[in-house]
Amino acid sequence: MRDVAYTIKAFLRVGAVEEAKAAFSWLTATILRHGGQPRTMYSLDGGLAPDERELDLPGYGNSRPVRKGNRAREQAQLGVFGDLMETAALFVQCGHVLDLTTRRLLADLANRCADLWRSRDSGIWELEQAEHYTMSKLGCWTALDRAAKLAGSGQLDASQADRWRRERDRICDWVDAHCWSEAKQSYTLHPGTDRLDASLLLATRFGFERRDRLALTRDAIRRELCRGPLGFRYSGMEAEEGTFLACAFWLVEAFALLGEQDLAVGKMDALLAATSGNLGLLHEQMDPGAGDMLRNMPQALSHLALVHAALAVDEGEG
Fold first, then answer.
1. Domain locations in the chain?
2. pLDDT number for residue 278
3. Measured between alpha carbons, how far is residue 282 from residues 22, 43, 227, 286 in Å?
């Protein structure tokens, strides 16, 4: 669902209004089709994604295993609340009006988010170990912040707006109290660890209030997770996989949105040069040493991250 939400945002930001409306209608109708409970992923026809199974086939370069479906389909990922509510807020910001069914759905989801944000989940990286992942809490902060603002503009029932604002502020205080590392000068993957998480760069896009700490977090991620213009998903991944292309574009976006335009442009140029050898198609990952493209191709999230980074750089240049 996250890729769909990011796609709608990109459509809206580049003025593809009809495509955005169609995608947003598909997303809300699909959520309602499955009882109003957002899932991490759906099939293209709006059904539930199939469970994961291995196929007796070789992948690119004779790599194995080849899998179909996804084991994360039943995972709890609280960040999806933020993705959906942020998309709805941008949809309204671009001049659209929410219909009554969608308003009721979003208000119900905001209330669920207010109930659930204290829960552990699998996080944006679909991890097997359930934790209080910092990015999931920031996704809930985004959801409740946007719900309160939509209520303030008359797009949602305002009777719950005080609760949404109250829980939003509690999340902010909780993240500051439990997810900040003085030693690293950064927000971390989850409380009780000093491991860093590149997805926290997205908090800049969401407008999380602690811009000073977001800038420090960005710098820590750049120091510890980046290899040249590329970056790993979170601490410890260097020994297990390649760099994750979306993370590198999120870093560009964070520099642009925090006002460091020259650094954003320089990093964007270096990143485009590093990824330009594959007919413009981006994989999921890249070997930072050999330069080989790795894993899924083409990867929607990589392309969407590129679009958002380019838009952030362009807006920073006026």
1. 1-40+75-177, 179-318
2. 65
3. 25, 22, 18, 9
